[in-house]
Amino acid sequence: MPSRKFADGEVVMGRWPGSVLYYEVQVTSYDDVAHLYTVKYKDGTELALKESDIRSQSSFKHRKSQSSSSSPSRRSSSRSRSRSRSPGRPGKGRRRSASQSREHKDDKKKTIQETSLALAVLVFFKLSENNTKRYNGEPESTEKNDTSCIILEQKLKPDLEVKRVLEQYSLRSRKDDKKTEEIFSEKKTFLAIKPIEKVPSKTKELEFGGRIGTFMMIFLLPATVFYLLLMCKQDDPSLLNFPPLPALESLWEWRVFGVFLLWFFLQAVFYLLPIGKVVEGLPLSNGKKLQYRINGLYAFILTAAVIGALLYFQFELHYLYDHFMQFAVSAAAFSLALSIYLYVRSLKAPEEELAPGGNSGYFIYDFFTGHELNPRIGSFDLKYFCELRPGLIGWVVINLAMLLAEMKIHNLSMPSLSMILVNSFQFLYVVDALWNEEAILTTMDITHDGFGFMLAFGDLVWVPFVYSLQAFYLVGHPTTVTWPMAAVITVLNCVGYYIFRSANSQKNNFRRNPADPKLANLKFIPTATGKGLLVTGWWGFVRHPNYLGDIIMALAWSLPCGFNHILPYFYVIYFICLLVHREARDEHHCKQKYGLAWERYCQRVPYRIFPYIY
C-alpha cells in the first residue's frame, strides 16, 4: 500500500475538479481504501481529491528565468560577437536556441498559470460582490442574463492572441499545442461553474441511532404496523386497550402471499412496457447519468383497467379487508427477502456505485440504510420501481377496497362522506406523484439513500398499510361529518396541496434548468458546487415549504375520522416526526456540501418548516 504524502491538517494547494485551477485547502482526512484525500476549501466546501490533484504550496512559487536575469551589457556583447563570426561557423546564440526555447516554454507556462490564477481571483471577487449586494438589498448579478463572465472572457482574449502569435514561432510539437488548447478550454469550462460531485467514501457519521438504532428499527417498524392494524380491528381502539395477539397460523396464508406476488410482478410488467419518455437522472459520483422511463401514470391507468375488469366480473375486492393483516405480513416477508438479496448483491458492486450514507462497513447499518445506491437488473431499477409502483398504487387500491367493505358491512347504498373525503384526498396525492414522476429523481431517496431494508419495507409495507390507516379505521368506526365541516377540511387540503405542489415544482424546475426564463424573478445564493440556493419564492419563506404542505395535507386526511380516538391521527403525528428528522438530515448534508453558502442561506431564511415557530 503506498504511503500518504500529505498529513492531516496540512495546508496545500488542491486542484478544483474539472479545471486547471488550484486553491488553498486543508487536508482533513485520508481514505486508505480509495486512496482519496478529503480536503476543505476556505468557503467550507469539502471534496475528495486524488493525490495527483494536490500539490505543496512551495511548488507554486515562481522562479526567475535565466534570460531575465542577464544584464543588458551581456546581451548586447553576445549579439555583437555573434555578428562578427563567419557564415561557416554557427553563432553562439544559435547553439543556445534549444535552451532559449525551453526558457520561452517556461515563461508561457507561467503566463498560463498567472492568467488562470487571475481568472480565479476575479470570479471569486465577483461572487463575493454578488453576495454582498444581495444582502444589502441591491440587485444581484447572479441572474440568468448576467454577462459578467462573458466580459471577463473578452478581457482575456488579448492575452490569448499574444500567446498564439508567440506559439506560431515556437519549436514545440503540435501535440504540445493541442494540450495547451485543452487547458484553455478547461478554463472556459470553469467559467460555467459546472457542478462537482463527491466520490463516495466510507460513511463516517451514522444516522438513525447507529448500529444499535438500526438494529432496533428492523424489529420496531414491523411491530408498529401490526399493532396499528390490530388496534383498528378493535371496538375500542384506545391506546390503553392493548389488542390480544392473534395466533401465528392465522397471520399467514399462501394464497394471500401468491396474490401479493401477482400484484408485484404485474406492476413490474407495466414498468417494463416501452411507453412513456426516457429521462436522465442527476449526475452520479462518477459523472454518469442513469436513464429512467417515466410511465407511472400509464401503469396507474392500466391498473385501473384491471381493477375495473375484476369488479365487472364480480370479484369481491373487499377480500383485501378480510385478509388485511395477512397481506401486511406477506408484504413484510417479501420486503425482508428483497432486502437480503439487495445486500448480498451489493457486496460485489463497484465502489462508485455504493450509497454515500450506507457504506459504513457495519453489516446491520448498511443492511438497513442500503449499501448500493441504484441496484439494477439490466435496465430495471429496483429502487425507482418500488418508490412509486407497488406501494403507492397499491395504496389507492386498498382505499377502494375499504370503501367497498364499508358499503357492504354497513349496508350502504353509497359510501359515507368521511370515506369519500379520505379516498379523494389521497387519490389526488397519488395521481399528483405519478403525474410529476420525474421530480422524484431529485429527492434524497434517489440521490443519497441506498436501497436497503429501510426503503424496501417503507415502500412495500409502510406506505400501503399505514397510509391507508384512516380508510381502514372508518370501516369499523364510522364517523359522521357535516357538510360545512367537510368544506373546511377540503379547503385545508387544497391549501396544503397548493403549497406542496408549487414549492416542489419551483425547486425541480430550478434544478433542471436554472436558465429558464420563467424563473427569471427568482434570486439565489451561488455555491462552490455550481448549484444555487433559492432565497425567494416558497424557498425564501421557509427552508422546506414542501414539508409544510405535506403536514397540512396529512392533518386534512385525519380530520374526517373525528376526535373520538387518537389512532387515525397517528399518520400526521408520525409524519411530523419523520419530516423533522429528515429536515435535520438535509441540514447536515447541505452544510457539508455547500459550506459558507448554506450558513448565509440559513441567515436569510431562518425558519425550517413552520414559519415563526420552527
From TrEMBL:
Region described as Disordered: spans on this chain: 53-112
InterPro entries tied to this protein: ERG24_DHCR-like, Lamin-B_rcpt_of_tudor, Sterol_reductase_CS, Tudor
Native source organism of the sequence: Vireo altiloquus
Cellular component aspect of the GO annotation: endoplasmic reticulum membrane; nuclear inner membrane
Membrane spanning residue stretches: 212-231, 251-273, 294-313, 325-344, 455-475, 481-500, 521-542, 562-581
Annotated Tudor domain residues: 4-62
CDD domains reported for this sequence: Tudor_LBR (cd20381)
Composition skew (Basic and acidic residues), residue ranges: 101-112
Protein localization: Cytoplasm; Endoplasmic reticulum membrane; Nucleus inner membrane
UniProt name for this protein: Delta(14)-sterol reductase LBR
